[in-house]
Design a protein that fits this description.
The protein contains 2 helices and 54 strands. By secondary structure, it is mostly beta strands. It comes from Trichomonas vaginalis (strain ATCC PRA-98 / G3).
Length: 665
């Protein structure tokens, strides 16, 4: 029988000592780093495979234009065949290859192609105009590189962590990317040709002496900071504890000071023109304690200050418009954030995630959106006052914080609160939302300690699990003339103290004998788990019992469903009704979902099921999790055996339902 394997996933050969590998006929995707096995000598491929082929133990694309995988222990040297045009992603990473000769047809070298290989020297051919990111990174034996005359771009991280000691760049080179030669500690001197117009942050180690050719757009000041065209700070060459950024600088480039453990203070000259602080600019500067961001800054990019664990205070200027992904994430000692913006500001995903000591946030009245997980895991945050300008709080924005008190202004414009926004705020016991909130996302208040909740007047939809695990929630109110139209599944799952649901006048809901229905009482949404009622009769109008409608109703003993009423009982409808001993399922019930009797340990006998078809009975037992003995009437002899706990296998269940069905005829 031929192999039906279609995909080889990443990591499946890690740590193996395989020497040969065969690629079956139907494999079309290879995500595994099979080259990371330094014992692998040969890869063979089914000749009928439509995507790959093997030549001399090396794996290529079917048309042979792409080198897909060079086995880690194939050979010490390799000359690319004339048919190759591209060296593929990770194709010779971690291999024991020491030398390679590129033929003129090779035009593309993809990312990580020779990462952590044993190459000693590389001659980049004239046909290559760019090298992809991290192509030779971590190749500790690499000491010599010769570049072709047509090379235009050296991509980020391309030669980082190698032992190159000297380089001659070709005239015509345009770009040296971020960290391209970072941690190349043996590289003492380089000359940058005048054609280069872009240098990435940390493209060279601080120990490297850089000389710029005449006519170069770059210049160096007395702090050994390097600038591009007098507007962009691109590099530092000395490890100082303090720098002063000149007023003419408009951009601090990617990764400029990233990982600088000597840096403690950044000063900006008066009348600074700084507009942008780019990706990773100060990331991981663990001793940076002081920085006053100029008022002129309008953009702080991804990871710009992430991991600056000594920062305690940040104040943003009045021109700020956007803070990007994880810009201040994991600033563990950050205590105060202050906004003084005159422009409308968006705070994007995870900006302040894991700022464990954050205690105070002062918002200006121009914040419009706080995006997902922005303040996630800010354990020390206790109080927060939102600005009236805020329109949207996204998913998990304040999840797992220490918030005890939340204040919204009277004129708040807030309309949407996202999924899990205040989940796991264990200290939050009260919240009053502003009236304009239209939507409350799923799990929004999960595992909080709120005791009462009043739905805002203009709220139209509340999603699934909004109050999941709110063990202290006692009272839920839909106020008079509230716009609420729909609530999600398992809305009150785990609300073990909920005893009162109020709905004095609504177009969409009603409360009858404590239970929450739609207006026409055709759908039952929730019966309060802590209600004192023990015997409950459902109305004749009812057609659907919603998911988890009676979940955790510990005092209920009996539920009566009228004939010609309920058609559908959804999942977990009666789950964990620990005192329930009596219920009937009339013939009108057509659809029952999974786990509706989960945890109903006292339903041991006397459950009346009018639909006697074997398929329905099997489903009630196997999927709905009703105790099989519960179907017998109370005068049946086995009723006395109700305490016996016997494990029932699928085969026993099938036999049992057959016998039961015959007995019911």
């Amino acid at each position: 029988m031929g192999s039906e394997l279609h995909t080889i996933e990443r990591g499946c050969f890690c740590g193996t000592i395989i020497t040969t590998l065969f690629i079956p006929k139907y494999v079309s995707i290879i995500n595994a780093n099979i080259e990371s096995s330094q014992t692998l000598k040969s890869i063979e491929c089914d000749e009928h495979n439509e995507f790959f082929t093997s030549v001399d133990g090396i794996l290529y694309s079917k048309d042979k234009k792409i080198l897909v995988y060079f086995p880690g222990n194939h050979s010490k040297s390799f000359t690319t065949p004339d048919f190759i045009e591209k060296i593929g992603y990770y194709s010779a990473g971690y291999s024991l290859i020491e030398s390679i000769i590129f033929t003129p047809n090779v035009k593309t070298l993809e990312s990580y192609a020779f990462v952590y290989s044993c190459l000693k020297s590389v001659n980049i051919p004239n046909t290559l105009q760019f090298t992809s990111s991290c192509a030779f990174a971590g190749s500790k034996h690499l000491t010599e590189v010769t570049f072709g005359n047509e090379l235009k771009i050296i991509s980020p991280g391309c030669f980082q962590e190698t032992n190159i000691s000297s380089i001659t760049f070709p005239e015509g080179l345009l770009t040296i990317g971020d960290t391209a030669f970072a941690y190349c500690n043996n590289l003492k001197n380089v000359t940058i040709p005048r054609s280069v117009n872009s240098l990435g942050g940390q493209c060279f180690s601080p120990q490297t002496v850089i000389t710029f050719a005449d006519g170069s757009p770059f210049f160096q000041d007395d702090q050994e900071l390097i600038y591009n065209s007098r507007t962009t700070l691109v590099l530092y060459l000395s490890e100082r504890d303090s720098y002063t950024i000149p007023s003419f600088v408009e951009i601090i480039h990617n990764s400029v000071f990233s990982g600088n453990n000597h840096l403690t203070t950044i000063h900006f000259e008066e009348e600074s023109k700084l507009k942008e602080i780019n990706d990773y600019a100060f990331r991981g500067c663990i001793n940076l304690t002081s920085i006053e961001i100029p008022d002129s800054v309008n953009k702080i990019s991804n990871f710009a200050f992430s991991g600056c664990t000594s920062l305690k205070k940040i104040k943003f200027g009045y021109k700020l418009k956007e803070i990007y992904f994880k810009a201040f994430a994991e600033c563990l000692n950050l205590e105060l954030i202050e906004f003084s913006c005159s422009e409308y500001v968006t705070i994007r995903e995870n900006v302040f995630t894991n700022c464990n000591n954050l205690k105070n946030i002062i918002f200006s009245n121009n914040i419009t959106m706080i995006q997902s997980s922005c303040f996630l895991n800010c354990f020390s945050l206790r109080e927060i006052v939102f600005p009236s300008s805020l329109e949207n709080i996204d998913t998990y924005a304040f999840s797992n914080t220490g918030i005890t008190n939340i204040t919204f202004p009277i004129d708040s414009k807030l309309t949407s609160i996202g999924m899990g926004c205040f989940s796991k705020c264990y200290n939050l016991s009260h919240i009053t939302l502003p009236p304009n909130v239209k939507e409350i996302g799923s799990n929004c208040f999960e595992n909080t300690n709120i005791t009462t909740f009043i739905v805002p007047n203009r709220t139209e939809y509340m999603s699934d699990y909004v109050f999941k695990g709110c063990k202290n929630l006692v009272k839920f109110t839909i106020p008079q003339d509230c716009s609420l139209r729909n609530i999600g599944n398992l809305f009150f799952d785990g609300c073990s103290s909920l005893s009162v649901i109020e709905c004095p006048r609504s177009e969409y809901f009603s409360v009858d004998v404590g239970a929450l229905y739609n207006k026409s009482e055709t759908v039952l949404f929730c019966f309060p788990p802590a209600s004192y009622i023990k015997f409950f009769n459902l109305p004749q109008t009812l057609r659907t019992i919603s998911s988890g409608a009676f979940i955790g109703c510990r005092n209920l003993i009996s539920i009566s469903i009228p004939d010609d009423s309920v058609r559908t009982i959804k999942q977990y409808a009666f789950a964990n009704c620990s005192s329930l001993t009596s219920i009937n399922i009339p013939k009108c019930v057509e659809n029952v979902e999974s786990s509706i009797f989960f945890g109903c340990d006292h339903l041991r006998c006397g459950v009346i099921i009018e639909n006697r078809s074997i398929s329905f009975i099997r489903k009630i037992i196997s999927e709905c999790l009703l105790n099989p003995k519960a179907i017998y009437s109370c005068d049946f002899p086995t009723c006395q055996c109700r305490i016996i706990n016997t494990e029932i296998t699928k085969s026993l269940l099938y036999a049992f339902t057959i016998i039961l069905y015959i007995g019911m005829l």
